[in-house]
Amino acid sequence: MLAINMDDVMNVLGMIKTHLIVLGVFAVLAIAAIVACGKLPKDKKFLVRTQAGLALFLAVVIIANLICTGPMSSMLDLVSETSYLTEATTAEATELVTQMAEVEQLRRLQIHQHERYGQRRQQL
Question: What tens digit of pLDDT does each residue of 50-71 get?
Fold first, then answer.
C-alpha cells in the first residue's frame, strides 16, 4: 500500500487550485440564483432553480474533466495502469541503483580507513 505524503497532496491541490476556485464561483452564483428567485412566480421559480442546478452540475462535470485531462492526467495514467515500465527501463534503473550502492559502499570504506589511519597516527 502506498503511503500518502502531505507534500504531494499540497502539490496536487496547488495544481488544481484555479479549477477549484472557478468551481467555487459557479457554486456561489448558482446558490445565489436559487435563493434570489424566491419572489418570482411558482413556474418561473421552478425554471430558475432547475436551470441553476443544471448549470452547477454541468460546471462540476466540465471542471472535473478539465482536471482529469490536464494537471492530473499523468497521475491518473499511472493509477489506471495505461502507462507501464519496459524491461529496458527496469534494467537501467536496477543498474543505476547498483552503481549508487557500490559508490556508497566505497565511500564508507574510505571513511573507515581514514579513521583507522588517524587512530594509528595518534597511537604512534
Answer: 999 999 999 999 999 999 998 8
